[in-house]
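Ticket #4471: structure export looks truncated?
Reporter: QA, pipeline team
Priority: medium

Steps to reproduce: submit the single chain below to the structure queue and open the exported record.
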Amino acid sequence: MYRKNAWEKYVDTKLVFDFAEGYKNFISVAKTERLAVRESIKLLEKAGFKDAGKLKSVKPGDKVYFINKNKNVCAFIIGKKPLIDGLRILGAHIDSPRLDLKEHPVYENGGFALGDTHYYGGVKKYQWTTIPLALHGVICKKDGTTVEVNIGESEDDPVVGITDLLIHLSADQMSKTLSQAITGENLDISLGSIPLAKEKKDPVKANVLKILKGKYNIEEEDLVSAEIEIVPAGKARDYGLDRSMVAGYGHDDRSCAYTSLLALLDTDEVEYTACCILVDKEEIGSVGATGAHSLFFENTIARLAVLTGEGHPIYTARIALENSKMLSSDVSAGYDPLYASVSDPKNVAYFGEGLVFNKYTGSRGKSGSNDSNPEYYAWIRKTMDDAKVSWQNAELGKVDQGGGGTIAYILGNYNMNVIDAGIAVLNMHAPMEIVSKVDLYEAYLGYRAFLTAK
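Actual output as written to the record:
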C-alpha cells in the first residue's frame, strides 16, 4: 500500500502554489460562518451562479445557489439526468472552534474592562491565551438594522486577548493538568483600561461602551441580540522554509469547504446534478436550524425539484437523496512525528500523500460513525485512480485514543452512499492549524473528479 508523495507529480509546482494563494486569501477573510457564506457568494456569482430564489425555473446546465439564514450555502449545477436519479454531493462545514461573547459580556474588574466568553466546539483552552485575537460578527438592533463588527484584522486596528499568569507566580497553576490549568470562565478578553472621566460606576467599562457607541451606534442592551465571535487575528501564512504548507485559523473545515466549492465552480456540464453544500454547527453536533441535522437541505432539494418541474417535490427530494453519492468533505488528523504514539502508522494520514478517505470515523468502537459500504468505496477508488488523483486512506488515531465525527452519518440517514474525504491537518482545533499545499490541490482535483464521474 505504498503511496507516492504527491509533490513528486509536479515538476513545476506553480499550479499548486497558485491554488494555495487563493485559499490563503479565502480563510484570511472568511473567519466566521457568515463571512464564509459571503465570500462563497462572491465566488459563485463571479462564476455565473444565480440566486435560485429569484428564478422560476431551471434547466440542465444552469448554475444556481440557495442561502439559509446567512450561514448555509447550497450550490448546484443542474445535470442532464433528472434529480430523482441522484446527485453528486460535496458537503463541508464552515464553522470552526472559537470563543463567543456571552449575552451580557462587558464587565469591569480591577481596573480592566473585560468581555465574558463561552468557548464553541472542542478547544484546548490554554492555547487561546496570550495570542492576538479579533472580533467578528453582527449586532442586531430592535429597529431591524444590523451592524457588522470587525475589529482586529486591519493593521490600524487594536487587538484583544486573554491574559495568563506569569511564570514566577504560577506554581499552583503548573501543578494542574492541562484541562484544569485554564478554565472556561477565565477565557475572558481584555477590552480596555482607561476610565471614563467623571464616571463613578465602572468607569473603564463605561469608556469601552462609549467607544462601541461611537463606532457602531449601539447601546449595551443591543449586545443581547449580538453574535460576536472571537478568533485569532491576522492572515494565513506560508509555513515551512520550503513554503510547502499553510498556517492559519479554520482549516477545519474551511480547507475542505474551499476546495469543494472551487471544484464545483470549475466544473461545467454534468450528467448528474452536482452540489456543494456548506453547513454550520458541525463543531457542536450539527444541531439547530443551520446544522446538518436541520431539514434545510432536504427542503432545498424539494425547492430545486419545483424549479426543474419534477413530480411531487418532497417525494422527488427524498428519492433523489437516496440515490445520491456524497463525499463528506472534512479534514482528517495528520501524522505528527512529535506525537507518533497516538497514531497507527499503517492507518494514518500523511502530509503530502493527497486526499484522505476515512471509511469510518467515530470514537473507540466506531461510535457515532458513518461506516461506508465497500461497494461504494470501490467506486470511489476507481474514480480517483482514473483521474490520477493522489489519495490515501486513514483512521482518526489509535482505537482507544479518542476520535471524532463529521456530517457523514447525518446524510447517510437518507440511505445515500457517503464517505469522508478530506485534507490532513496538524494542530487541529488550535488557533493556528497547518495543512499541506499539495494536499489542498489534490483534494480539489479529487472533488472535481467525483462531480463528473459516471
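Status: closed, not a bug. The export was complete when the record was re-opened. Leaving a note from the reviewer for reference: The CA atoms of residues 1 and 31 lie 37 Å apart.
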